[in-house]
Predict the structure of N5-carboxyaminoimidazole ribonucleotide synthase.
Amino acid sequence: GATLGVMGGGQLGRMFVHAAQRMGYFTAVLDPDPDSPAGRVSHRHVHADYLDEKGLAELAGCSAAITTEFENVPAPALAKLARLKPVAPGADAVEIAQDRIREKAHFSRCGVACAPYAAIETQQQLDAVPAALLPGILKTARLGYDGKGQQRVATREQLAAAWAAAQRVPCVLEQLLPLAAECSVIVARGADGTMVHLPPQLNLHRDGILAVTQVWEGALPREQAQQAIAAAESIARGLDYVGVLCVEFFVLADGALVVNEMAPRPHNSGHWSMDGCDLSQFELQVRTLAGLPLAPPRQHSAAVMLNLLGDLWFDGDKPRTPPWEAVLQLPGAHLHLYGKLSARPGRKMGHLNLTGASAQQARGTALAAARLLGIEPF
Ligand code: ATP
Ligand code: MG
Ligand code: MG
């Protein structure tokens, strides 16, 4: 079998490795952490920094093709790898997704509306911010995730203070929008331009972190679902993208759909596909990387995904094991744990998929699981 390489050893890499191995591939993971979740289950684990020449050469040397599992892998590392082996997605697409300013410019090029915003890279741009953008959210242009690097601001004074607190790095100020819902669409695009997608996912965030994803026919109004799919496809096509891409959207109170951001990789909101769909987002990633055919995925069960954050491993200050015995007695419960060696609040430790023959059944089971685990109902 050929070896598929992946930059990054987190949980997304681990689930990619599992999917690749199931299909007969060997895997190689590059991650500086010797205990990384993906490295520990991979055939080969290259311990090196992402920009380390020797590490990159070793990964390229043993891999037939290379992908990435985390957003902030330095684009120059991907560009270096691409001189040696096929890399998907490409450095240029990843670079755009890493920078909110370039990302938003790409969305407008594709004719997809995003929240009204202003780029803030200079004092002049700060002073010129239109009043209509307040109240707003100041987001660092690079390196944010799970709501980190974001500050809500209501006045010009707060905006100036927030930018100073962000060390005056490049930022965007987005208008704070009245959200009726959030959703995401995962597309997979092959090198020949073939594109397939997973059904639109209804997402609930808590404290800036994805908490719950629900997927079934009708979870989102049909019109917004169709719009979201078309927008995600046009964003992927516009990048000449190869691989799995997730696009996140806001549904506004008046029903309008606006794009939030994209992730050039499988996404937390697509984890339900491991148990609710005949093709998971990780199998799609393997197929795009290995040049295998992309059949349209078919959802076979209504699904709810509950994120399992490190908080569940504590009872106040006391460490505990969540009550898996009780949870696994629920029909349709599928537990995924990432093998992280220690829990801390807010850390993604695993997820729980609850599937059912109907939306009502999946939701009922998910609410029962949430009650057992101490996750707030939704
Ligand atoms: P991720 O982990 O998804 O990459 P992130 O740190 O990049 O997160 P965003 O997706 O930009 O953060 O924002 C996190 C959440 O904050 C959103 O899912 C949404 O709930 C809220 N949010 C972000 N921007 C806005 C906005 N302009 N108006 C209202 N709510 C917003
Ligand atoms: Mg993000
Ligand atoms: Mg987001």
